[in-house]
Specification:
28% strand; Immunoglobulin-like; elongated; Aminopeptidase; six-stranded mixed sheet; single chain; alpha/beta
Length: 411
C-alpha cells in the first residue's frame, strides 16, 4: 500500500509539473518603421523554450515564423514600408504562428530576442523589401531554424511570468533591487520625424527637388547610425513616401514612449542668399517673424492632402502651456544647443541665430524634449546641393544621431 500511494503521488507531481511547464505568452504585436524597412515586435512574457522556425509563402508574399512552446490569442497590427500587415495566432496546441504579409517580395534581414519591459522578452524581426528572384529562392528553401540566443532571465522575469500565468508563484518572495529595476528599463527612444511626404512635397529646391525626399534620406541616415550603435532605440514616423498628419506624428511618438523627438525639415525663403541650419523649439510666442512664418507654413501641412485637421486636437490650440510642458520646453532648448555644438564641428553650417522658437503643432502635446531641425535652405543653391548630396545627407544623419545619443546617455 505505501508503495502504491508513493506511485500515485509521483504521478500527480508529474502531472502538475507538466501543467506548470513554462510557456511563452504573446502579449503584444507591433510593426515599426526602420531605416531599412520595418521591424516586427512580438512581446512575449518569457523567451520560448521551443524551436523558432521560418519559411516563405506566395500569393500574397508572406514571411511565416512558427514559435514552439508558446500560446497566443489572435492579434493583428497594421504594417509600414515593406510590411502590409502582421498577425499572430495559435496554430496548434504547442505552436504560435506569426505571419508577416508583405507589400511585395520581402526578406528577413535579422531576428533576435531582446529584453522587454518588466522582465519580459521581445522577438524582433527586421524585414526589408527584396526582388522577385530572391523571394522565389527563399520560398524554395522551405523551413529553416532561426538560431536565436535566449536572453538571460532578468530580475523581473519571474514577475512577468506570474502576470502571464505561465509559471507558479516563486518559492520565496524577494524584493527586487532598485538597481536591477533600472537595468531592466528600456533604452531611451529617439523618434525621428521626416517632414512632409506623399502629396505634401514640402519646399521645392532651386534645382526642382522636393523637401520630402531630403528629410527622409537624412532620417534614414541618422537611424542607421543609431541602430549600429544600439545604445538607444530609434523609430521613424515614416519610412517611405506617405502623408501623415501632424496629429498622427505626435500620436506615434507618444505610443512609442519617446524620450526625444526630432522633426527633420529643409526650409525655403524669398531671399536666395539665406542659408544654414536652424533648430526650432516650442513656445507660446515666436522669437521673430521668420519663426512665425515657418510655424504657420508647417502648421498648415494637414491641409495639403485635403484633410485640414487643425480643429481636431483642440487641446493643442490656443491653450496656455502648463508647467509640465515648460519643463520639456526647457529641455528642448538644451538639446537644441547640444545639436548645434555636435553638428557644427562636422562641417554643418548653422545660422548665426540658429535657435528660434514658435508654436509648432508637431512639437506640442509630446511631454518630452522635441525640436524641429531645418537642415538648410532649398532656395539657396549651395545649401540645396549639399542637402541632396549623399555626403551631405550622411553628415547630417550622423550629426543628428551622435547628438541624440550623447544627450540621452550622458556620454
Amino acid at each position: 500500500m505505501p508503495g502504491r500511494i508513493l506511485l500515485v503521488v509521483l504521478l500527480l507531481l508529474g502531472a502538475v509539473g507538466a501543467v506548470a511547464q513554462p510557456v511563452a505568452v504573446a502579449r503584444s504585436l507591433a510593426v515599426e518603421a526602420t531605416a531599412e524597412g520595418a521591424r516586427v515586435r512580438l512581446g512575449l512574457g518569457r523567451a520560448p523554450a521551443g524551436e523558432v522556425t521560418r519559411f516563405h509563402l506566395t500569393s500574397p508574399e508572406r514571411l511565416v515564423v512558427d514559435i514552439a512552446g508558446a500560446r497566443a490569442d489572435r492579434r493583428e497590427a497594421p504594417g509600414t514600408g515593406p510590411v502590409r500587415a502582421a498577425r499572430v495566432a495559435q496554430f496548434d496546441a504547442q505552436t504560435v504562428r506569426l505571419v508577416v504579409e508583405g507589400a511585395g517580395p520581402l526578406r528577413l534581414a535579422g531576428a533576435r530576442f531582446v529584453p522587454g519591459p518588466s522582465g519580459s522578452t521581445v522577438l524582433e524581426l527586421d524585414v526589408a523589401a527584396t526582388d522577385a528572384a530572391a523571394f522565389a529562392a527563399a520560398v524554395r528553401q522551405g523551413r529553416a531554424t532561426l538560431a536565436l540566443a535566449r536572453p538571460e532571465p532578468g530580475p523581473l522575469a519571474e514577475i512577468a511570468a506570474l502576470l502571464d500565468g505561465s509559471a507558479g508563484p516563486p518559492a520565496t518572495p524577494a524584493a527586487v533591487p532598485a538597481e536591477a529595476v533600472r537595468r531592466a528599463a528600456r533604452r531611451p527612444v529617439v523618434v525621428l520625424d521626416p517632414g512632409h511626404g506623399g502629396r505634401d512635397v514640402g519646399a521645392i529646391s532651386v534645382t526642382g527637388g522636393h523637401e520630402k525626399d531630403v528629410t527622409l534620406a537624412v532620417a534614414r541616415a541618422a537611424a542607421r547610425v543609431l541602430e549600429r550603435s544600439g545604445r538607444v532605440e530609434v523609430r521613424l514616423t515614416r519610412s517611405d513616401d506617405r502623408f501623415l498628419t501632424l496629429g498622427e506624428r505626435v500620436a506615434l511618438a507618444r505610443a512609442w514612449g519617446a524620450s526625444l523627438f526630432i522633426s527633420i525639415h529643409a526650409d525655403s525663403a524669398p531671399n536666395p542668399e539665406a542659408r544654414g541650419a536652424s533648430v526650432y523649439t516650442l513656445s507660446e510666442t515666436a522669437s521673430d517673424r521668420e519663426a512665425a512664418r515657418l510655424a504657420a507654413k508647417e502648421n498648415r501641412a494637414d491641409a495639403i492632402a485635403g484633410r485640414d485637421l487643425s480643429a481636431v486636437d483642440g487641446e493643442a490650440q490656443g491653450v496656455l502651456i502648463d508647467l509640465a510642458l515648460r519643463d520639456s520646453m526647457n529641455a528642448s532648448a538644451d538639446f537644441a544647443q547640444a545639436l548645434q555644438q555636435r553638428m557644427e564641428p562636422m562641417g554643418i553650417r548653422f545660422r548665426s541665430q540658429f535657435h528660434r522658437f514658435a508654436g509648432f503643432r508637431v512639437l506640442r502635446n509630446l511631454g518630452v524634449p522635441a525640436v524641429l531641425l531645418e537642415c538648410g535652405y532649398l532656395s539657396n543653391a549651395e545649401d540645396s546641393a549639399f542637402l541632396f548630396s549623399r555626403e551631405g545627407q550622411r553628415l547630417l544623419g550622423e550629426g543628428i544621431a551622435r547628438a541624440a545619443e550623447a544627450w540621452l546617455t550622458g556620454s
